[in-house]
Amino acid sequence: MKDTYKTIKSPSQGFFKDRGSKFFGYAYPCSSEEALKIEIEALKKKHHTARHHCYAYRFKQDYSVYRANDDGEPTNAAGKPILGQIDAKELTNVALVVVRYFGGTKLGVGGMMSAYKEAALDTLNQAEIVECTINDTFEVSFGYPEMNTVMRFIKDLGLTIVEQKLEVDCKIRFSVRQKDAEKVKDKFTGLKNIKIKK
Fold first, then answer.
1. In DSSP terms, which residues pair with 175 in a beta bridge?
2. What is the pLDDT of residues 134-190, one digit of tens each?
3. Is 89 exposed, middle or buried (0-12, 13-18, 19+ CB in 10 A)?
4. Is the domain of 153 the same as that of 127?
5. What is the DSSP string of 140-164?
6. Which residues of the chain have pLDDT under 70?
7. pTM
8. In this structure, are residues 183 and 197 in contact, taking their beta carbons and an 8 Å threshold?
9. Hey, is 23 helix, strand or coil?
10. If you average pLDDT over every residue of the chain, what do you get?
11. Last residue of one domain, picked from the residues 108, 132, 156
């Protein structure tokens, strides 16, 4: 089971020009349409004389949510080639907007598809791509006397503490890479006076 995904570390910009038409690309690490809308509004202010702000995105760690938008260009001439470049680099939680300024010469549908593809490719080539792990989060609850045992397990298993409440009744939330989740759960399940839940 794959428990990693690739995304971009920070926003990036790219550019492509064909027969006077200019294509400005902007990629964002982003995981919701609401966040993307804010970026598009900012781009519309910055490029207020541009005719088209076409975009595509792919969201979720399992790559399941995606959309391509042509923003007035011929159907599938802009959004689809942009999405194609996101998919070619196997990225998710990424949105990519290409802003077009018309240069006076019509490119035809093939020329446009190629231009949007090149602008998207240049934008992603400028980005730093990072691989992230998909993690599960668990909560262990235990009495104060079990503190040392739990802390030793967390250290030995290399778990990341997300939140902790250490009083008479203690609770620790930790995250673990998905492929190791069952093994870690089994380790804690066998301990006396310690409860673990997802």
1. 137, 160
2. 999 999 999 999 999 999 999 999 999 999 999 889 999 999 999 999 999 999 998
3. middle
4. no
5. EEEEGGGHHHHHHHHHHTTPEEEEE
6. 1
7. 0.83
8. no
9. strand
10. 95
11. 132
What integer pLDDT is reported at residue 52 of this predicted model? 96
* Residue 65 structural domain: 4-132
Task: Say which CATH number the domain at 177 has.
Answer: 3.30.70.260
Structure tokens at 104: 């006076």
- The pLDDT assigned to 152 comes to 94
The amino acid present at 117, given as its one-letter code, is K
- The backbone torsions φ and ψ at residue 45, rounded to the nearest 5 degrees and listed phi first, read -75, -45
Q: Which pLDDT belongs to residue 190? A: 84
CA distances from 83 to 57, 91, 127, 143 (A): 7, 10, 16, 51
Q: Which of 132, 166, 183 is the last residue of a domain?
A: 132
Residues 94 and 155 in one domain: no
Q: Give the separation between CA 55 and CA 23, rounded to whole angstroms.
A: 12
List the CATH number of the domain containing 75.
Answer: 3.30.230.30
Q: How far apart are CA 87 and CA 132, in angstroms?
A: 16
CB 56 within 8 A of CB 83: yes
Look at residue 1 in the predicted model and tell me its pLDDT: 60
Distance of CA 99 to the CA centre of its chain: 21
SS3 45: helix
Q: Are 92 and 130 in contact (CB under 8 A)?
A: no
